[in-house]
């Protein structure tokens, strides 16, 4: 019988690392989505089960806190578990372990279940057996909270959503939001510091061929507020902490 906690191993491949030869934040985020998908599918509340009920999971918030980034050509273990289930959301946690057995970060994420046709929220508690997999394993960071866009932010970049940006629903892929956000910072900053904290709220979907703009403001030392807009309305908000 499967336990409540899933553990999955990933390799930091050279073609996905940055100029420092280290994993990137979008790479780690991608591993998180893969692990979440496998964990849910193996326990009966994954993609195939959801589609049979005319539902899909939607990632709404994440809080990722890292003490470092693994090197090229090393392996990491990603542990994931469900920490809470209620009518509107389920919370999923992650722990990142390097190949020497040291933990280099944790993450919390919030997911909603929506109807495929209406795109409206459905009752997560209706998913039979899901609450059986709730774990009380500790995740020593805060839950992913609401982020309010900063006032008087400045335009940092704009782009058109293209083929390589979209997912199966023809909407901007969850990790592509992160890629576009981290790309607005200059290389010189990455040469001196690292992103240690990344929080994100997904508000609405970025659609294929739409023009999106990214606004940035440093709200305190080494902490930036970012928001992505379509027609001057925020579709995604993030907060980035550098150290």
TrEMBL record:
Pfam families, A to Z: Acyl-ACP_TE (PF01643), Acyl-ACP_TE_C (PF20791)
Acyl-ACP thioesterase N-terminal hotdog domain boundaries: 8-126
InterPro entries with a match to the protein in the record: Acyl-ACP_TE_C, Acyl-ACP_thioesterase_NHD, FATA/B, HotDog_dom_sf
Keyword Heme included in the entry's annotation: no
Keyword Lipid metabolism tagged: yes
One Gene Ontology term of the molecular function aspect: acyl carrier activity
Keywords in alphabetical order: Fatty acid biosynthesis, Fatty acid metabolism, Hydrolase, Lipid biosynthesis, Lipid metabolism, Transit peptide
Domain annotation Acyl-ACP thioesterase-like C-terminal: ranges: 153-242
Highest taxon listed in the record's lineage: Bacteria
Family of this protein: Belongs to the acyl-ACP thioesterase family.
Record's protein name: Acyl-[acyl-carrier-protein] thioesterase
Source organism of the structure: Dysgonomonas capnocytophagoides
